[in-house]
């Protein structure tokens, strides 16, 4: 997916956040990174691609779930996998 997937930047409306998605077959990987020393709000885009609760593939904090309207802790990066 990371090598062959279709890359698309995701709008964050926050200069401290960087987000992108990769699509391959029936999976979508959403990667969001907070480059700030403060907690930053982030809302998952309102799209059919990002419905439901994703699987957390990787994060540098202990998280069990990530919800549509959530936040990232200081310097947090997270990879979320959605399956269609």
Strand content: over 45%
| Regions with little confidence, pLDDT below 50 for 5+ residues | none
- The coarse overall form would be globular
Largest sheet geometry: 5 strands, antiparallel
How many discrete structural domains?
1
User: How big is the Rg?
Assistant: 12 Å
**How many H/I helices?**
0
What is the helix/strand order?
A: EEEEEEE
> How many extended strands?
7
CATH class value: Mainly Beta
The CATH superfamily name is Golgi alpha-mannosidase II
List the strand order in the largest sheet: 1-2-3-7-5
Helix-strand category = mainly beta
Please, what is the average pLDDT?
Answer: 91
Percent in helix:
under 10%
- The CATH topology annotation reads as Immunoglobulin-like
Question: What's the N-to-C terminus distance?
Answer: 14 Å
Going by CATH, the architecture would be Sandwich
Question: How would you characterize this protein structure?
Answer:
The protein is mainly beta. It has a single domain (6-83), classed as Golgi alpha-mannosidase II (Immunoglobulin-like, Sandwich), CATH 2.60.40. Helix content is 0%, strand content 48%. The chain has no helices and 7 strands. The chain has strands at 6-9, 17-24, 27-34, 40-43, 55-59, 69-72, 77-83. The strands form 2 sheets. It has a 5-stranded antiparallel beta sheet with strand order 1-2-3-7-5, with no helix packed on it. Strands 4-6 form a two-stranded antiparallel sheet. Strand 1 (6-9) and strand 2 (17-24) form a beta hairpin. It is globular and about 35 Å long.
